[in-house]
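Board notes (copied after class):
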Amino acid sequence: MFFIQLLTLLFLAISTLAAPTPTASFDGVAPQPASRAPQTPGKVTLNSGTNFGGAETTVNAMDACVFVGGLIKSLKQQSGAVCRYYHVSDCTTSNHVPVLRLDSTREDVEVPDLGAWAEAIRSLKCWGSP
């Protein structure tokens, strides 16, 4: 009896730690919840390969426009910010320039494959709230 209760408690503890599944996608980009480590809002890790492979660069774009060049196929955005990713180098937008917006105010966001946005992001900027 004690063994069954112990297994039940263990199962409940493990099941409550499971990460929620993403509920939205943006232009074919499906953000995924990431690990929980000490965070720096606005910190984004950019990879030149899909699934976080290839060359890796980490930037802090909190309240600042950061030029990133365009060779990005996957990214990890730390919690505490909303970031916008632009097709242009100066974080501006118009009716002709789409913007990718990822909200990581509550949890880290990982995008293992940027799909149509792969190699198209030229700059990004993050804010503390949506």
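Comment from the instructor: The mean pLDDT is 79. Residues 79 and 108 are 4 Å apart (CA to CA).
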